[in-house]
Please model this.
Amino acid sequence: MGLSSIDDLFSDIPEEVRMTATLPLPAPQSEEEILADARRLLGANVPLSERVSFLGAGLYQNFVPSAVFQLVNRGEFLTAYTPYQPEVSQGMLQAMWEYQSMICDLTALPVSNVSVYDASTAAAEAITCAVRVHNRKASQKNTVWVSELLPPEKMSVIHNYCQGSDIILKTLLHTADGHVDLASAQSAAGSCGIYVEQPNCLGILDEGICGLKEIIGADTALIIAVQPTSLGLIEAPGNYGADIVVGEGQPLGSPLTFGGPIYGIFACTDKYLRQMPGRIVGRSIDGEGREAYCLTLSTREQHIRRHRATSNICTNETLIALMGAIHISMLGPEGMRDLAIRNMAACQATKQRLAAIQGITITHGEASHYNEFSITLPSKASEALVYLDQKGIIGGHDLGRWFGSRENELLICATDQTSAADIDALANGLESWLEVIS
Amino acid sequence: MSHLYGHFGAEGAGYSQPSALLSSTKLNIPSSLRRKELPALPRLSEPEVVRHYTWLSKRNFGIDTGFYPLGSCTMKHNPRVNEVIAQIPGIADIHPLQPEHHLQGLMSIFFEMQVMLATCAGMDAVTLQPVAGAQGEFTAIRCIQEYHRTIGESQRTKVIVPDSAHGTNPASASMAGYDIIEIPSTVDGRLDLDALSAAVGDDTAAMMITNPNTLGIFEEDIAAAALIVHAAGGQMYYDGANFNAILGKTSPGLMGFDAVHYNLHKTFSQPHGGGGPGSGPIGVKSHLADYLPGPLVGRRVLALNEKSNVSDAWYYNWVEPTKSIGKVQMWHGNSGAVVRSWAFYRRYGNELETMSEHAVLNANYLRHRIMEEAKAAGVSDAFTDGAPADIVKHEFTLSLLPLKESKGVGAMDVAKGLLDHGYMAPTVYFPLVVPECMMIEPTETESKEVLDAFAENFVKVLTEDAKVLHAAPKSTPVGRVDEVHAARNLWLRHEKGRQS
Model:
């Protein structure tokens, strides 16, 4: 090669920008040492799986069948890049086409992409997509109405994604019983879209949402965020007029992993297809007419359209979506229904048990809840959580962290992993805390 | 073929679940919200599921399968210990809304990663929150935007990108609301300082550029470019996609950059999973640090009566930057990727520069071997350098325009020919500034034998009959896929009864 040393390979880096000292980092370690350190450090964390836990609030612990982990770790899936050469990527392409099919079946919509990053970015991308599709005809230009019952973290992501296109985000109100205020929804007619969650962040399933499409009309997008595990039991949004369905895919297939990597679901009607973000797999044929799959409609994407792309997304969450696909394959239609029943039953059992405790009020006691519900306490929820923590119980989420006016409310989540003994432990813990503070 | 939707077993097929906690009580579901018909999902038994996905995996190419010289994507080996670590319950089963004292171990790893990444890039502060490179770009551009607004310079509405830039650069800046100015490269594929000088002004918010550039060439004028942009009041943004080439040799900070993103799924070996997950932390200089998305991990000295279960000296806590742009992902980013990348970095420690050395050595060696083989086979005139250079960094480009003109064989045909030789094809038709471009990046984890064999096979493909290459690939699960057919006859999901 005509070179005499490694340094020659870096002779094109001008002297004035060259790093001269060794990086001030620790010495290299062997695999054994790294593993030991990882076990020591990560072992110091408190996993929900080792505690009685009622924490959900957007991430949910459901049982994930063993086959999911075994299959997803096959190196051919794990160590591939985005399938730019379809002839040698048929496996992942077909798996993602099947993922799209399953998301379409669950949501009752005709189109799904192969995932975005998470629920919050899915919500944000749905809102900007709705504006691209509807703005020309809209009487409320650049405007989308967003439910006030959104965790501030999610709202913050939405703001970041929307500010660049000057989108006006208006607040869709809820009534005191936690349901969408239909009068407020009326004012969204003529805007580009309306974004609501089913169940909402307080776990409430809202019948009123089924009537929203009629209220806002065809020229305003109805964007529904779902909890995908509910869709074997709870009506698919496509069947009550949803135009775009988004949601957090994590409960299907993925452990919590501290909130990432997880995957965002994005499905829509044909009308939004060419304005949607992310990769889409199409079924096609090869030169001999054999069934074959490839990425399609790439002209929406950044590597072709550059600054006029529908989104900047390139890398998505394919592998985690694959975990979801395998999980759904293991469940089948009846399994999806049964999983939803188990989630809902655990939630209802917890609710009934806590409702019997003097000093605790179920905040929206009449409502139908999926996975989680709020209880109102005589004192701050944060104090209850500290007390329960000392007893080895993770009691839920302090709603005061999300909504200033709800500091006495605790968001309690039960899933298929909740046992009767867990519920007893929580009830006993709360009872003894109530005694302490009274 | 195996079709998931070909499996419709008996009702209730699938794995068995325990019965619900409340089998006797009626669930409270409003009638209009109860699903009328079950979703039309397939019904499979566990062995059917396992066989189907195993069959699919055998129709997929990964680094585990073979050499993957996909330029710009840094497809290096993914150490398996990283996967073992990511499954420890202390990362797999923890929740971001748990209190700090439940999370001290992970937070100490976050802190270490923030420090390591800042050190390597010559930056002052790092957030791990962005979940992909493109999101890192967007996040950093948003920080620059808020910074300019705060100091009263919101007239800065333009972002400059070279025409050789990754497509995500202009897409990310545009998403943040900027107008894009694309400046042409010089004829030899370098940054054109005259074009840059002409483009900057008091409306310049930032310049986005990667170095080495997408042709694998180190931009020797980078410090001068930074001076030009800074003199106009703009900020310099470093696209970290090619950081693998220079780590420990120079840094974005030394080159004059104000902000940078890192691709943990490139430089730090997070597996790419067939399309993701990635992870795209960003680092910034101190004047931008207050704008980062929060929270970051900080630490304070333990008080006298305090104890920590991970450190004798420190308690780790969340810190919210004072002028934060807010969040770009709901939680703390792709923490699973951060933990894997932590394990990768620990393996190298203060010798991280050897990674770049081997990556650059492999790229130059492969380039040299391809030239040598081509000469011996008498096909040196089949291609030219994408850009003239004595040495390249971690990747290089070839233009197959001569082959296209002489034999009608383009870069895509050569790519498909390589598939028949058992290789993943290099990146083709990017960067856009090189006609019939092929972009080759071997990475540091390949041996001399692999590179030698690839060079031989690459040249073999160049000498193959045009007819053979136009018909390639032949040995793959399917032949050349008709992408035009796919776009014209959209078939995006299982539809019962549909045949074509």
